[in-house]
Amino acid sequence: MDSAGRFLLLWPLCALLGSGCRDDGASLDDAGTGSQGPSSADGSGAMASDGMETGASESSPGDGDGDGDGDGDGDGDGDGDGDGTLSDEYPGDVGICDDPAVVWCEGFEQASVGEFGSRYDQVRTDGMSFSAMVPAASSGSQSMAMAAGGGFGEATDAYTRLPGDGYDHLYLRYYVRHEDAPYHHTGVWLGGYAPPLAWPNPQAGSRPGGDDRLSVAVEPMGAVAGGLRLDFYNYWMNMRSWQNQPEPTQFYGNTKVNRTDVFGPVDGWRCIEIAVRLNDEPGSASGGELALWLDDELVYHYDETGPLGYHVADKFCPSDATAPACADYAPPPQEHDEILNLQWRNSLDLRLNYLWIQNYISSGSGTVYFDDLVLATTRIGCISG
User: Please, are residues 78 and 71 in contact by the beta-carbon 8 Å criterion?
Assistant: First the structure.
């Protein structure tokens, strides 16, 4: 197996919480909704008491595979490939929510939107409804439709703090179905606030300081042949500005894929999985990693060694980038020698501690569909048959 396929392969035992270890990973804006004050489904701002319906401990994801490393793959290396992915153990995802490696699980199978909302710290449900459309491999009977714009307001979303005191490495898998719509920010954000917050506070246009916040998301970025181009939209301390001036003042989410062949089909389901590993030294990018899979195919694995590429303003462009914003300004191939700086933080107190599912449309309207979301400490994979 090549180095890209062996994502996060050298985690020590304590990094993934064998017994008695803290999950410190010895080695993973412009949401358009603005800063929001505390609120929740019941108006209290408190985390729903049933917010965690998994087998994971609130302070650690546990082990559960018998090898003592807590990664769920049985081989002790932490890359999730020893016995296949987590979903391989649960055909149709039946029972996957109870696996000790799972931190948060959402199948959208509640009896009502209100019941769904009760699991989250803050929700805006006016545009929410359940749909009978589900991914082909799903064992569920419904997905969540989130409409925004039109008569529903600009944003429909659900935000929750994660159980426990945060994580330094996580995998997030979900299914998404897009329409041909003018999405602005539509996807699932995984991130952290220090201290943790019970509501989203993206701080559009402002670069994080390294000890306060970070966010990672995959979102549609406009039409390409076959559907809507997908890319990361991330905020962290080493992000770049779109402004070409000595001291830029505005920072919006940075893209990192910039390929026209990475897309979500319109009116078709796509399985998205990301992995984030936070740097394990506050003064460097050591240990920082990021990965993206679409339908179980690895798109990129970013770490301290690559992929090599170049920057165009706030865009990181791997050498094979084909999106015009990169390709039209590419330097000669011999100058494709930059790597992505994944020093996510300069304080180990900043950890991954929130999940935000959203559809935000600032002009026009449209619906997005989500299903079969799993957040875990090991590679999840798409639903197995």
Answer: yes
Report the alpha-carbon distance of residue 345 to residue 169 in Å, rounded.
13
Q: In sequence order, which residues have a C-beta less than 8 Å from that of residue 371 and are 6 or more positions away? A: 107, 108, 134, 135, 138, 140, 143, 144, 174, 175, 177, 269
Measured distance CA(138)–CA(260) in Å, rounded: 28
Tell whether omega for the bond before 91 is within 30 degrees of 0, i.e. cis. Answer: no
Gap between the Cα atoms of 359 and 107, Å rounded: 18
pTM of the predicted model, to two decimals?
0.81
Burial of 45 (C-beta count, 10 Å sphere; 0-12/13-18/19+): middle
Give pLDDT tens digits for 363-380.
999 999 999 999 999 999
- Residue for token digits 């639903």? 383
pLDDT in tens, 90-131: 999 999 999 999 999 999 999 999 999 999 999 999 999 999
